[in-house]
Amino acid sequence: MASGNSTIVFFPEGAYGPTNNCVGIGQVLRERGHRVVFVVEESFAGNLEAQGFEERLMRLGPAPEVEEEPGQFWKDFIRETAPVFRKPTIEQLSEFIEPTWRALCDGSRYVDDRLREIFDEVRPDAIVEDNVLCFPAIHYSGRPWVRIVSCNPLELKDPSIAPLFSGYPTDDTSKWAEFRAEYERAIAGLQAEFSEFCSERGAPQLPVPEFIHESEWLNLYMYPEEVDYERSRPLAPTWHRLETCVRRSDDSAELPAQIASGDGALVYLSLGSLGSADVELMKRLVDVLSRSPHRIVVSKGPQHTEFELADNMWGEEFLPQPALLPLADVVITHGGNNTTTECFHFGKPMVALPLFWDQYDNAQRVHETGFGVRLPTYEFEEDELLGALDRLLADNDLGARLRGIAARVQASPGTSQAAGLIDQVASGGR
Q1: 28 with 416: CB under 8 angstroms?
Q2: Which are the contacts of 253, defined by CB distance < 8 A and separation ≥ 6?
Q3: What gap in Å lies between CA 54 and CA 49, rounded to an integer?
Q4: What's the pLDDT band for 2 if we cut at 50, 70, 90?
């Protein structure tokens, strides 16, 4: 169904999750007759072209001396700061969260001129960004723009919901105020500096303690209704919830015979492209799961040569997750927002082992709503992990609930909903 011939630019964060989310929406818009252009880091060059999209390349920092893998900057950054992930979330605020915001802000400063060049050349009818901070060139362009939040919706703050990055439970508010105060203290100086930069480069100043504005045209976030948060203040009318947003993939999941069939359930283990770089954690998971009666599919990630799998396992560096999830009976995940929502899309219970950013919040929300089990990532006991898998697999009521959610969200794809709304913005509406 072609509805127009607008030019729509997608600008996702330089990681697989936001990029894949935008790809799903871009696929629908392209089928409707629109020109879809992706602005991506140079390390992703060719990835989007291979899927039929135009690319415009940029960098968030100086070029390295050696060739990069896609998202290499963040892989290196996460690896260097990984020891902090073993600390309580309130201690991570100054040791991981603030440095991460600082790195992001540095990237926005570095790329601003290049983004202006791209927008002047492409002349988009709408710009869609899936980032966590402001890029002033978007505002300076004067084009209608759309904000996508592909992190946990605690990013959209409200007094009645837990603080972002905390992983704190909804029904215990005792530590919320302390965490919020420490977060604002940790980022106050940086936020003020970045707000001033935004103002100098043609964007409005940022409201405290935010690093990004709401769009006056359209804002989208992803979270299934069953796990979304009850707010004391309604979001603006420009906000729309996409319960899931899963791209179509031509990839198929061809499992080895001993994994495709056999005794036990099929367990899918993925800590994401960044989490799987923690080799010691991956080795421990392989060791514990080797004593499971189940068959395990492992997304090995960028350090795939650094560890071996057990006899009841199979995996590769990259796996086609949208093709594998329908086959799995239960998922062990880091709790990234895309994987979390994809598990709901395909009706799969989760064991969540959070590592950083909003993964604690997703893990906690899945746990407290009964759709999975959150475990301490570095301190879990062997029987805790194996027992959690067995309990989830044996819970027939939970399985039925998840299948019902999957049927509902697949019948009304978030990719199509988002494409329709973005189409309106590109056509001059709000």
Answers
A1: yes
A2: 319, 320, 323, 324, 327
A3: 6
A4: very low
Q: Name the pTM for this structure.
A: 0.92
Q: How far apart are CA 192 and CA 198, in angstroms?
A: 10
Cα 404 vs. chain centroid, distance in angstroms? Answer: 24
Coarse DSSP helix, strand, coil percentages of the chain, rounded to the nearest 5 percent: 45, 15, 40
Tokens of 115: 């983004």
**Angle, helices 98-122/176-200, rounded to nearest 10 degrees:** 40
Enumerate residues 6+ apart whose C-beta is below 8 A from 346. 325, 326, 328, 406
DSSP letter for each residue of 256-319: -HHHHSSSS-EEEEE-HHHHTT-HHHHHHHHHHHTTSSSEEEEE--TTGGG----TTEEEESS-
pLDDT in tens, 202-238: 999 999 999 999 999 999 999 999 999 999 999 999 9
In whole angstroms, what separates CA 326 from the centre of its chain? Answer: 19
The better pLDDT of the pair 110, 322 is held by: 110
Distance CA 91, CA 422 (A): 39
Say if residues 390 and 268 touch (Cβ distance below 8 Å): no
- The pLDDT tens digits of the residues spanning 172-186 come to 999 999 999 999 999
In this structure, are residues 242 and 222 in contact, taking their beta carbons and an 8 Å threshold? yes
Q: Strand, coil or helix: what is 350?
A: strand
pLDDT above 70: residue 71: no
Dmax (CA) for the chain in angstroms is 63
For tokens 């948060």, the residue is 229
